[in-house]
Amino acid sequence: MSDSYSLLCYTRVPTSREEANNEDIAFSMHLALRSHLDGSWTPLNENYGIFFAAGVPIAAATPESRRACTAAARFKTDPYTTVRAASDAVAHGAAMPGVDIELKSLKDPHLFRLASGRFAVAATRTARGGGADGSERSAFLLATSRDLTSYDQRGLVLLGPTSGVHRPTVIYNDAERRYVIRWHDDDGHAMRAVCADIIAAVGTTLPAEPDDTAEPIAASNANDVNATSVRRDYGIADAVPGNEIDITEQEAATLIARFGRVYNTGVTVPSMTVSADLYDGEARDLIGSLGRTTAKLQYSDGSTAMRAVDWDAAQLAALADDAAAGRLKPGERRTVRGRIRQTDYPVPFAVERADPSVFAWNYNGEQLFMFIATDDTDGNCVDPNGGRTHMPLRVATSIADLSDAAGGRDREIDLLTRGDRNSEGRAMTGCFWAPELHVIGGKLSVLFMPCFDGPAADPDGTANDRAGKPDMWTGRCHIMQLRQDADGRDLDPRDPANWTVPEPILGPGERILNPVQRISLDMTVIVDSGRWYYAWQQVGSVWIAPFDPGRPTRLTGEPTQIVVPEFAWDNMIAEGPNAFVHEGKIFLIYSGSLVGIDYTTGLVTAPAGVRADLTDPATWTKLDYPLQKSGMYNGEWQLGTGHGMWSHDEGGNLIYVFHNAEYDNGRYGGRDAQVRRVHWSGEGMPILDMQRDEELNPAYAGVTMEIAVR
């Protein structure tokens, strides 16, 4: 072991949602590294949780219905879960968030090493928000981890008989080849238990005995996470420390690469060579090609990125003149100055435009960029603007020109407006939620959710307060496609008449997608190994099903639930899925924690190009913490970041389009669209919140291209 690095685990005292530190976030395990230079402690992941207790499926949830509860896959029957009836979703092989799953939190985390040298975490499991859930009477939560970037939640280790398990600690005694578990009971008495294999102990009961080697504590402090007599000040805001462990330099590097800030450390430009034998047009063409030379940016984690450079036009022109006239001599060297291109997108990009989609599209040989979104004026996305619901589309030749600042809002076209009818002849009166642009079956398509006026009564027979008004619960996924002429050329997408009548997307047997609640929304497309899938939100979770792009209004297989919100940070919903394939892996982002200032972006991944069964929840690997969350961006707070979509800019760089919450002095005013570039880290993870100066250090923005004449 290296003594250069110490790692601290801790929770936090909850402060506020505005600081991304409410109970759902504070009561999770955070990590901090001690500097080997000055001994100070630096929180990882911006002082945000990294390990969250997984929610527990209720006893009435069937094995089939809990298949998407992958974080809790190893959990056995939990004696502390509330006994209640399952939701209607269970009969359809799914789990209903908040009904069939009980969300959990944790406190008093303790890091330790397994006999194998890998990491493990012991913690007191709590109810969501930090209150008692009963397990603290005689058990603690155990999880294992290879490198603390992901966790395998094993379940509860039961201890008994005991009257309370507070501040559990575990060490492996190498000499005796056994684990020693210590804790204090409700009365402050020191207790312990031993076992040879702590993983095998999960779900069993280990006999407890008094621990004569430890001092008792005051009963009043036994369950007090803020007991100052045993807490050290680490200089971390609101920290409630757990324990410290030593880690190796490589282990520290892994944590820094994942949870530290990645920043630009240098830039290189390739040296170029031109021949003195070139003349006239051939010489000008060659010099012109030099203007497309790109720069490679290096980063602190070993990753790189390519960026376009705006080269000095006058210097290139002078060089081209000399080359064309034969004035270049062998052995001569020339230089051309340039500046790395770093487009700054306006913040906000589009006010009160939520669930945004930016799409690069070739319109009969012309490169166009399109922007489409939900109208979220004043936070009313059901019937905004006094009932003048519409689907706004923007079209431009650059992404920047789609923004409000460039007049994009003034040039919006309404593809649909309230009262337009779908293929069933029903008037679409509200919502037009989460429109996404895709090419399906060779046709430009919009996937979206309209809603209709509510019926007099809800399905349970009670009066519907949205009767005769747009009712979000009537909403269903629809598709409309751009028409083509007789020669197969696309018609102008800016003319609403050139789009087909919206059609609902139905499952096998012409059934609606969501038999439990009716509503289905946020549909997107995933293509893998030649197979096409829709993914969307219903029953508060992400579902998937195959379809034929030649008949995109019908599924070709039964929908299955693949992502369920299982953590306090993704709360009661998983929605807004969108996928991108990078280096053999499907990155499917989704959003959780309900719409508002707590909104977050989660991630599940699956292997790409190997014909994996994407309808099997076990194919997908879930990140334990949000990929993106509320935080500082270029010096300003952005709250409620989520519902994003992958896209590309003019230079082919991957961008992330999403919305954040308008929030000022306690007032929520809807959601605004934003655009950022994506950086791929050295370990192959997408970074969605790279700051401007982290992406490109201003000191490296000016570059020089060396040109040798031979």
Automatic annotation (TrEMBL):
Superkingdom in the source lineage: Bacteria
Keyword Signal among record annotations: yes
Record-linked InterPro entries: Glyco_hydro_43 (IPR006710), Glyco_hydro_beta-prop_sf (IPR023296)
GO function terms (MF aspect): hydrolase activity, hydrolyzing O-glycosyl compounds
Keyword Cell wall biogenesis/degradation in record: no
GO biological process, one term: carbohydrate metabolic process
UniProt entry keywords in alphabetical sequence: Glycosidase, Hydrolase, Signal
Pfam families registered for this protein in UniProt: Glyco_hydro_43
Family: Belongs to the glycosyl hydrolase 43 family.
Descriptive protein name: Family 43 glycosylhydrolase
